[in-house]
Amino acid sequence: MHRFFVKPENIIRDKEVIITGDDVQHITRSLRLKSGDQMIACDGKGTDYLVELIDLNQKEITCRIIESRKSRGEPDIEVTLFQGLPKSDKMDLITQKCTELGIRRIIPVETGRTIVKLNDKKAKRRVERWQKIAYEAAKQSQRGKIPSIGPILNLNEALEMIKKEKYDLFLVPWEEARGNSIRQVLKNWNVDKKAGLKRIAYMIGPEGGLEEKEVQTLIDLGAQPVTLGPRILRTETAGFVVLTVLMYEFLEMEDV
Amino acid sequence: MHRFFVKPENIIRDKEVIITGDDVQHITRSLRLKSGDQMIACDGKGTDYLVELIDLNQKEITCRIIESRKSRGEPDIEVTLFQGLPKSDKMDLITQKCTELGIRRIIPVETGRTIVKLNDKKAKRRVERWQKIAYEAAKQSQRGKIPSIGPILNLNEALEMIKKEKYDLFLVPWEEARGNSIRQVLKNWNVDKKAGLKRIAYMIGPEGGLEEKEVQTLIDLGAQPVTLGPRILRTETAGFVVLTVLMYEFLEMEDV
After folding, report:
1. Looking at CA atoms only, how far is residue A42 from chain B in angstroms?
2. How would residue A245 be classed by pLDDT, with cut points 50, 70 and 90?
3. Do the beta carbons of residue B144 and residue B172 sit within 8 Å?
């Protein structure tokens, strides 16, 4: 069934949904849906509405809500990726793939080995671009929430955020984390303990990796250093590998 | 330490390694290594040689073997991906990421919903291109073997190959595989049983997915249908998600 995101204010007293903007053209012209057809409208906050199209014109579509339910595509764990800002268009790939896999938020971070320099104007445009990629990927993968991307922070700002947010678990993949595989760390919790972990975060370095003193600062804030095994993963690969492992271990890849 | 692949015939009686081709320029000009410096030469068959550079000229470099050891980047499980041939340059990404993650072989397959049509000449060029991507990714990620890519098969040819190869485990991610998550299937084996599984394969559909009758044919050949959870993954994402889960479950992401 076709699926669209709508702004929460376009959901009227749990009875009607109003579709506006580009989706109107898409629904009427490309998909040729008509009065009486059904589709899913998602509020982007984790609720799906099964609706029937009632009234269609060129500017908006009015739908009647048949039933509402929790979006099944939305994981219970809320995962934040702090991503060392990489070169070229790698953030596009990271954003798209991590959205498909269930990320909640991505914060690009300028670390010691970040090479890219973005002025304010360019940074703003990039974040808008990534947010759009996240929107499209959330729609395609049937997420119930649209991940938020940005703002770009420097390392000190990111550390302040980490202190403030008090994540239940914070992982730092690091080549030098001898004897501490991600599997061993995650197996340390039994199922009951895991049930208590909801807000999870991890930081991935840019192309050159994180500096040792950066990792040490994160460890001092409670982060757990982990290895991802003997193969050297590119920065854009490490992000979705950790996310896949988290979704797998926290039972978010089960049939529902 | 710098690392290069060499052809097995350039490893002389376990005593010397001869470097030829483009690597000579790279080693002498870009990296400026000199007589007495050490590096790793890998035979691409799973053995690494720690060598000392002895004699360098513009055409070849002679090295003395100090010691040999099993490449630590090479997983024990041998995983083959049968990938429904996708559009545009998605195979580039699949090849690069799956190589980093430890794939052994990728066979692109023309299934019922494959849209791309490649004539023989174009197909040959594409396979060469993917093989080159696999070589570069194997080098970068410190693999001990270079995955083999291709040839492109049609579905019947792929089915013949699957019959002949008799994989220990064959997975088919399929949206309709109700009640059978990849986690549940993999948890069905205890550690001892898992130790006996070495040759693993899986098939991913192209953009439109596999047809139901294609999945049924695979099931008749012993394949296990599995779901990857409630989020709809793109074809190029599913391949490395399954591979990540396999490497994780089969302890190939441990510290070594």
Report:
1. 14
2. very high
3. no
Nearest to B47 by CA among B12, B6, B106: B6
- Find out whether A106 and A80 touch, Cβ atoms under 8 Å: yes
- State how many domains chain A has: 2
The answer to whether residue A255 sits within a structural domain is no
Looking at the structure, do residues A19 and A101 belong to the same domain, yes or no?
no
Give the residue from chain B lying closest to A250, CA to CA.
B183
Are A46 and A148 contained in the same domain?
no
Residue in B141, B183, B255 nearest the CB of A179: B255
pLDDT tens profile B148-180: 999 999 999 999 999 999 999 999 999 888 889
- Find the mean pLDDT for residues B213-234: 96
ipTM: 0.94
Residues B66 and B182 in one domain: no
Per-residue pLDDT tens digits for B71-85:
999 999 999 999 999
pLDDT band at B1 (very low <50, low <70, confident <90, very high): confident
Q: What are phi and psi of A132, to 5 degrees?
A: -70, -40
Phi-psi sector, A150: left (phi>0), alpha (psi -120 to 50), beta: left
Query: Distance (Å) from the C-alpha of residue B254 to the closest C-alpha of chain A?
Result: 5
Q: Is the CB of residue B46 less than 8 Å from the CB of residue B145?
A: yes
Mean pLDDT of A36-41: 96
Cα angle A124, A76, A15; round to 5: 80
Closest Cβ–Cβ partner in A179, A248, A254 for B245:
A248
Per the rule left: phi > 0, alpha: psi between -120 and 50, beta: everything else, B56 is beta
Q: Indicate whether A136 and A37 sit together in one domain.
A: no
CB-CB under 8 Å, A73 with B232: yes
Instruction: State which residues form the domain around B10.
Output: 3-70
| Interchain contact, A248 vs B183, CB within 8 Å | yes
Q: Among A72, A183, A248, whose Cβ lies nearest the Cβ of B230?
A: A72
First to last CA, chain B: 17
